[in-house]
Design a protein that fits this description.
It contains 10 helices and 8 strands. The protein is of the alpha+beta class and 348 residues long. It starts with 13 loop residues before the first strand and ends in a 6-residue tail after the last helix.
């Protein structure tokens, strides 16, 4: 029943047969959900002692709403088709049909780009139909197989590794390693899309919040914000790598030393903030927020060092400094979210 049609009723719990408790259900609710004697009803225990009563037809209806069809014209760009596919993936559809309009055919590029994107960017997705007229993508991964925490932990490990590799590439002016960092950013984006999909589905259907590994709806918002910060941190690691590619010669040892010092603090903050989230540790998160001041001081030293550089290299160095600072700021953002999620632990 929709929330607007719900009315509050009080009913007495009956005891029968010496061991069974019985509660009668409103006739209006029975009629609206087309139930009758012998109909199957699911009971689900929710947080806070609540009990959900779910008509069996609800499951059938959810399955019917589980498929989406995208109509594609020949003039549609592959990027436009991909954006539509991503949108349907994010809102929770498990079967996505991409069909050519007016019984025509999808272009070769449309098919190729969509298949490529789904293989490399949509976690748990397989191509189950591939014809000139239609592509069908099916999401086969179920909620317990890869929880939000597991996906976020993998995403965070990759992002931290990208940052370290980018700094190593900077120190040795290793263009090949820098290119690998940029490519690895796709892995973080894959997990980002997957987590957003899980969280959006949970908000729309609170019954699956625990199935994705969270406790309540507030966790969904917190994890969404953390995921965005992790994704942006990975983007800044890729930005550092892109600036390495623009450098024509290695930086002076003094500049490298300043950057390494700043980077060590920033990435330590990032990893500790993520760990505070998984441990639900208020004190650990608070220590990260305090460290932001330390990064600002080191940044000033690095900026002074950049002013002594060749005018051609200085802009790239300053962009690298900014990306390291932003990584520390995102770590602080994550820590503040953990504070909000765990504040009850310090209340008396």
């Amino acid at each position: 029943m929709s929330q607007s049609k719900l009315t509050e009723e009080t009913r007495k719990l009956q005891f029968t047969g010496g061991s069974t408790y019985i509660l009668s259900l409103p006739k209006r609710w029975i009629t609206q959900n087309q139930l009758k004697k012998g109909s199957m009803i699911k009971l689900r225990e929710e947080e806070g002692g609540l009990l959900s009563i779910i008509p069996s037809d609800t499951t059938i209806q959810e399955q019917r709403q589980d498929e989406a069809t995208i109509r594609v014209a020949l003039k549609d760009s592959p990027d436009s088709v991909i954006r539509k596919a991503v949108s349907t993936y994010l809102v929770g559809y498990n079967m996505i049909h991409i069909k050519a309009e007016s019984q025509k055919q999808l272009s070769t590029k449309q098919r190729h780009d969509v298949k490529d994107f789904s293989r490399y960017m949509l976690v748990g997705t397989e191509i189950v139909t591939d014809t000139p007229q239609e592509l069908t993508l099916q999401v086969l991964l179920s909620y317990p197989e890869l929880s939000v925490q597991s996906a976020l932990r993998r995403m965070s490990i990759i992002a931290a590794s990208m940052h370290r590799d980018a700094m190593t590439a900077l120190e040795g002016l290793d263009h090949q390693q820098a290119k690998e960092v940029i490519t690895t950013d796709n892995e973080v984006d894959r997990f980002n899309l997957y987590i957003v999909r899980q969280l959006k589905t949970a908000i729309q259907n609170p019954r699956i919040i625990k199935e994705i590994g969270l406790q309540n709806a507030r966790d969904c918002l917190g994890y969404r914000l953390v995921t965005k910060s992790v994704e942006r941190s990975a983007d800044h690691a890729a930005n550092i790598a892109e600036n390495v590619l623009s450098l024509k010669r290695r930086l002076e040892p003094e500049a490298i030393e300043r950057l390494e010092k700043m980077s060590t603090v920033a990435i330590s903050m990032f990893e500790t903030a993520v760990e505070a989230l998984f441990r639900q540790d208020y004190a650990l998160a608070e220590s990260i927020v305090e460290k932001t001041k330390e990064v600002i001081l080191i940044e000033k030293e690095a900026v002074v060092s950049s002013q002594k550089m060749d005018i051609e290299e200085a802009p790239y160095l300053r962009l690298i400094i900014e990306s390291i600072r932003r990584t520390a700021e995102y770590a602080s953002d994550i820590a503040e979210i953990v504070l909000n999620l765990t504040v009850e632990s310090i209340l008396t």
